[in-house]
Amino acid sequence: MSKDKIQEGRECMDKAAKYLKTSLLKWVPDYDSAADEYSKAAICFRVGKSYKESKECLMKASENYLQNGSLFHAAKCMDQAIIMCKEIGDTSDVFKLAMKASHYYQQHGSSGSASLLLNKAADMLQQSDPESAIKLLKEASNISGIEDSTGQAMEYTHKVARLLVKLKRYEEAENEIKRQFDLVSEGGPTSNMGRVTVELFLLQLAKDDYVAAKKVLHEYGMQYCEQAEIYMLDNIVNAYSDHDSAQIQKMLNSPFIKHMDIEFAILAKSLAEKWTVEPKGQVTNIENEETEASTADFGGTLC
After folding, report:
1. What is the number of alpha carbons within 13 Å of residue 14 lying toward its C-beta?
2. Of 28, 141, 196, 209, which is least packed with CB atoms within 10 Å of its CB?
3. What is the mean pLDDT of residues 72-97?
4. 268 near 252, Cβ under 8 Å?
5. Is 1 a residue whose pLDDT tops 90?
6. Which residues touch 60 (CB under 8 Å, ≥6 apart)?
7. What's residue 299's pLDDT?
8. pTM of the entire structure?
């Protein structure tokens, strides 16, 4: 069966090559027919499990569709070629193909297909090449935002934040989380913003910024969090203020936090573990805040 399909695929390739030939009576290659034959060949090779040849045919089909101005079909072939990259086990071309295909989808007016492709490609790269995955997801979010699909843009932005947390790039992750709040102000859904608020709170603690974490509670927590979440964050704030390592560990290991997205659950666990080793002086700005409060009470600096 596999050999038959591979042979059929090569016959389709021969037909495609004939369509591209010119002569005295045929001045212009028949790009459309050639593209169709390359597409048929790609299917045959895929069924025959010759994935490398399938990818090559898809790329040739895409090139010919472009020659004929068929942007959607060209992008679709690149989209399928990305799947073949996964089957081959070589994702080195995925980023480049995804960006090109998304561009052609957008030119055709199929922005939804563009963002979905970028998301799919990012999922393929998040383990082997997280930097490229982040770029793809940011592009997907931008496209969705332009198309007024704010909910989808928020989903992609959140995936960027999760990857950045995994890479311990907390400043960048904070910016992506804050972008979700901006998208809410543009009409995005608020259903998950309580959890997002807790994520932003944890990021401030990861940056050793107790004051910023406290501001998150008052600025966003009161607006988006459930009562139980507010109670938990308030307890953490008070525990940090009192340097109460036992309470900090208890709150950061609460069931709610343990059931957050895995990246933030791991982050919370690492924060809790810091207090098992060295409970004092873990967070900057705690002493600063207390000093500022004392200064304010006396109307100036103390001598």
Report:
1. 6
2. 28
3. 96
4. yes
5. no
6. 16, 35, 38
7. 46
8. 0.86
